[in-house]
Amino acid sequence: MADTTHGEGRRASSFPPWLKKTLATLATVAATILGLLFVTFMIGRVMPIDPVLAVIGERATQAQYNQTFRDLGLDKPLLTQFWIYVTDVLRGDLGESIRTGQKVTTDIARVFPATLELATLGTLFGVVLGVPLGVIAAVRRGSWIDQLARFVGLIGYSMPIFWLGLVGLLIFYGILGWVAGPGRLGIFYQGIVEPITGMLLIDSALRGEWAVFRSAFSHIILPASLLGYYSLAYISRMTRSFMLEQLGSEYVITARVKGLSEWQVVWGHAFRNIRIQLITVIALAYANLLEGSVLTEIIFAWPGLGQYITTSLLANDMNSVLGGTIVIGTIFVAINIFSDLLYRFFDPRSK
Amino acid sequence: MKKSFAAAVVASFMAAGLAVPVAAETPPNMLVIANRIDDIKTFDPAESFEFAGADVSRNVYQKLVNFDPLDLDAGYQPQLAESWEISEDGKTITFTMAEGHVFSSGNPVTAKDAEFSLRRAVTLDKTPSFILTQFGFTPDNVEETIVATDDKTLVLTLDKPYALSFVLNCLTATIGGIVDMETAMANEVDGDKGSEWLRTNTAGSGPYKVVEWRPSESVLLDLNPNFGGEKPAMERVIVQHIQESATQRLQLERGDIDVARNLSPEDVAGLEDAEGVKIVDELRGRLMYWSANQKNEMLSDPKVLEALKLATDYEGMSGSFLKGQYTVHQAFLPRTFLGALDETPYSFDIEAAKAALAESAHPDCGAIKISVRDAQERLDIGQSLQNTWGQLGCDIELIVGTGAQTLDRYRAREHDIYLGAWGPDYPDPNTNAGTFAVNPDNSDEAGATGLLAWRNAWGIPEMTEKTLAAVVENDTDTRREMYLELQREHQKVSPFGIMFQQIEQNGMKESVENFVAGGATTAVSYWVITK
User: Fold this and answer.
1) What CATH number should be reported for the domain whose range is A105-350?
2) Assigned CATH for B58-202
3) Can you give the pLDDT at residue A1?
4) pTM attached to this predicted model
5) For labelling, which of A25, B75, B407, B484 has a CA lying 20 to 30 Å from the CA of A100?
């Protein structure tokens, strides 16, 4: 017994550091997702909503109720139910959605690309416009452009997205007719492109179906701009405040005294030092959009993850909620790991 | 709150003259509809029991007997069965199948398909199966009670001599849809009689077939190439899931859709002057009611119930926040049903209500909790009741929850007052009479959660007998009279305050003709629509 333990100890200590680190990260990821699942599972089970009724409806007989109660495994202890669920998940089976009657994996494969496409475009919009706006606002502090940035930020923080979405639809779709209406694609283009990634812009471009691409772009541009606007408000505000901190530092004064151009001072020195903080901000903004923006999805009839999880939660469709939770949990963990890696790349100290 | 504010702002933009120009046109042979269709779980007629599912099913599956959408008042008509005969003892119905009906697969419709479909619906025992099993069919006896003696003849043997109209009305429900046996069995997995496959695919002989379904997104129907009837004008029907009324309105005004099915009263009002758009009102079967738990001592006092019925502002509500969407109706059978009672004996009269309360054992009223789900119209009704019942001195508290939470409490008989809606399951008076006016065993152990009378702990052995007598009455006029009498008594003594019947207001292009949502008895029929 003692020998075996020693042997294992020696083998463990012979692991290279990168492997140890990877294993530790994987263990943390697994523990995080398991914990998340446990909490969501328990919340679902203790909610004052009867999951059986969600399946069979209010007209079912008591015998049908009892049968479904057993079929769902609800007659077993809670921990046993959780154990069964986790072992199913490990086999890749997230169960069936009681709301759509389909496998949760099939549902998520359908709704997640819609959210991914929208969130990515929205974040891109927010970063491309928000970062320069924040930097310029900090450099020209108190100028009209700073006021504009603050105004944009204020509107972004205070206007309900539901309201802006409806007004946006009314103006750009209803009155001006510049963009297409709700949904992901015009009805005449549906079913033309065989899915590859599930993201219509990418799939139609890969297949060379440019008419479909135009229709998809015309549909996504308004909701993506709307989400991008909210990201822009957040990103520009944070960029401004990070830059202000840097621009007041001694090394910036020194750089100016040395006679460096304003461009070099701002972008070559100050901005370089806020990159790491910005990565965190952008990663968080992206992760928030990936969770799905429920109201935007509802107004634009965008069949995404946020709407899927919310509707499922209200219908007590816990398999769908748990499936969605796994996806969101994994996204958050993945984005965290990715931003950690970027930290190491950009910040020599962390090496 | 946020939503209604936003909708109001958009409405005010529109009212300010920013009218939406009509731009696009849908093709003449294609119908595009915006509707809330996220309740569809399955297309299988043996299992489907949701509104949007019934809309699809009616256009895909034919039944032995069915309603003519252009003459709903005529009642059931021959469809897959060309005629039927009832035996002298009233227990055996023999159907003769009609010629010329073909499934979308190309297989002809025979009595064997009808036998397979009805037996399957009973043995699978899904929620709507009670519509058939109430005639005595069970998984154990279907081989003797539902029998195709040859390709043309189907014989149903009932456990009692029910009214023929009752049986045939039930066969027009979604569960009466006849499925292509060969196709279903070709897709059978583990003895499921094709259930898994039929959830997402269709195998009917109706005018359309489902080509694609994306849950909570869209349903695409194309013509059944083998349809035996007259070719419908709409060769393709697309139903898009659009949650928001304001969005549906914009799409209709832009011309991107032909029909908008979930317009709010504000948007309906906004569309009244819109060019090229019309609103078509249709009376549906859904009732809005409140009911009082008879386990609550105060609420079981007949005089208190009378006071509450008199202190409900029916006209006030239907003339304001429910305007156009609900009409006052106070009996358990929706108008247009056989035996529906039109009388409205209660109107808002606070003095009469106070007088009734003074005669009760609770002249000062007391605390009453109203369970209501978090839907705008129900909250509005709840607040109106809170206001007018408050004038009697009652201390009203609204307990707001999700639909599932509120329903759980109701089924567990834990409410004081439940504020809710009820829609018929099949187009026969027994669908509502059998739940509002039947409760043979009022004990908790009976667990008759499907009966509204039981949920309200209202034990009514005598009324139950009268209701059950009506389902075996074969003379239609006598049957009608029996229901009229039942409803009059129910209005007077029951703990149900039935208030309104739903009106569906559909917005559509001026050119759309014959859009029939199904009235109070059935679902939508796309095959008669032209534009």
Assistant:
1) 1.10.3720.10
2) 3.90.76.10
3) 37
4) 0.84
5) B407
